[in-house]
Design brief:
Blueprint (H helix, E strand, L loop, with lengths): L2 H25 L10 H13 L6 E2 L3 E2 L12 H9 L13 H13 L11 H7 L2 E2 L5 E2 L3
Antiparallel strand pairs: 1-2, 3-4
Amino acid sequence: MTTHRVLAVSTLVLGLAAGSAAHAQRRGGDNPYPEKTGEEVYKNVCQGCHMPDGKGAQGAGIYPALAGDKRLAAGGYPAMVVVRGQKAMPEFGSGLSDAQVAAVVNYIRTHLGNEYADAVSLDQVAALRPKRGPVGEVKPPG
């Protein structure tokens, strides 16, 4: 990978992370995400990158499609990605409640061309959050 490409990718990743933090700060207060339903969370938080139809986008970065995504068959996968982030996608677990994560995951698994009937529960989402050990130590889930 060329130096120019490394710098471009690094800038994109840092921009996405900063944008997510700025987005949460602009929303402000103790509850930066007041949305209650999965559809509300998707429309106000997710569709900016994944698009209203869930088909994703390419341009300054790659925003994967959620529409017809077979990786969504296992409900724990999208829940983990929402809670902890993955690659260029920032984590939203610090701002979204277990109920909001479950709602948006269940929404994308039953909409956008997906038909996965089994619902992700609040307990499943809670189990994905990092466990805190002694001060400063973060343990994996479980």
